[in-house]
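FORM 7B: Structural annotation worksheet

SECTION A. Query
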Amino acid sequence: MTSIQMPQLGETIVEGTILKWLKREGDAVARDEPLFEISTDKVDTEVPSPVAGTVTKILVDEGATVPVGTALMEISEAGAAASGDAAASGDAAASGDAAASGDGATSSGDAAASGDAASSPASGAAPTTEPTPEPSGGAASSEGSSAAPPPAAVTPPAAPAVPAAPAAPVAPAAAASVPAAVATVPDRGPRSQILSPLVRRLAKEHDLDLAQIAGTGSGGRITKADVMAVISSGGQVAPATAGATAPVTAPAQPMPAPSAGIGEEIVPVSHIRRAIAEHMLASTQTSARAWTMVEVNVDHLVKLRERIKATFQERYGLKITYLPMVVRATVDALLEYPDVNARLDGDNIVRHRFVNMGIAVSYDAGLIVPVIKGADGMNTIGVARAIADLAARARSHQLRPDEVQGATFTITNPGPYGSVASVPIINQPNVGILSFDAIVKRPVVIDDAIAIRSMVNISMSWDHRVIDGEAATRFLARVKENLETWDFAEDLGV
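SECTION B. Predicted structure
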């Protein structure tokens, strides 16, 4: 029997959500065939089967969020059932021989051994069906209890063995009044060891004591939502005490179920939409955003693209767009102005000596930012290939978590949808994001004469905590100069 667990898809990933089961109990599955879709705070992806066999048990419901390492399903490998039946029939024959021999001691010993085997977790069934109780693990627990009816048989007959010392007089009332989900809150030591970098950074930037924040995540883990709730309340955190009978993290009263009016439709917020919302809200509450725009004459780039696009696609199997040229021009400017290619870490500014370029990609679930690692070492053809590959895999939900993190700067490209000026939200922990809008023919003054040229607005939202207006404007001026003066024909190999 093979137990399939929630995989750790990245160094900072501590939990995942089951989006959809692709296999059901009783279904045959081949090796490397997708079993289910999961969603983390970084990316959605499919998880393949490591073995061939038959799905015997599904332990977690769709929509449940569980920690990394949680048992999700069991697969009986091909041939295992047959060997199990053979072993069972052999055991039956052996026990029959023992009964015929009349060896009372042996038969009673066998009975005891079989009883031990039934109550022992050595077979692996108990760890799988009875995981450590978590607030979000109810589905797994209920599944396990229905599969194994005898748990009451192994429960100690009386309570005296449990408490080591007499309980305080208020303990019974407190135990009856405090929800079970809150019972794990006072245990703050281990919980702080699995905090995500974003949670630690937000707490540090807002001078919050993590020991005073009770988590609502799996196992009492502090989530981004917990920190954002404290920030939204002005940083007021009521200290939690071990003897408190009314915990500060008592869940809010459930909101009444929304009802749709005439001409309205209610759509539940998806996991990805919720992650985007949290990330965007955290960015606006963290950075001091400012904005600058420059106008760029890209007439020669438009003519170059028209001239080479057929040859380029035939030679490289890619459609040439303007975005790889913008990336190359931006990378050069980032290396010239390192404060724009940086992040703020407490009282320090961390300047990156390399460029990992995040490219915002729109897909069916929302917006995602895959990252071109080492963009400063690529020519325009390499950048074009990287963009095409990441965008295609983003839209088919095949990105790996490490491909959507580590960006040092980000570019968004709303131009194909007709946007002529945009003010994007900074992709944390970056200190800037550049927007490349629509290329439009319009009249401009060139050498005191009015001419028609292909023009584009390039803007940047930037973090005033790290960058000043002069640096931001100089940076954009460098991008503008590169796009207006570079000859990309040679770099594109045509």
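SECTION C. Observations
The two ends are 57 Å apart (CA to CA). The domain at 91-152+171-249+272-494 is CATH 3.30.559.10 (Chloramphenicol Acetyltransferase).

SECTION D. Sign-off
Analyst initials: ____
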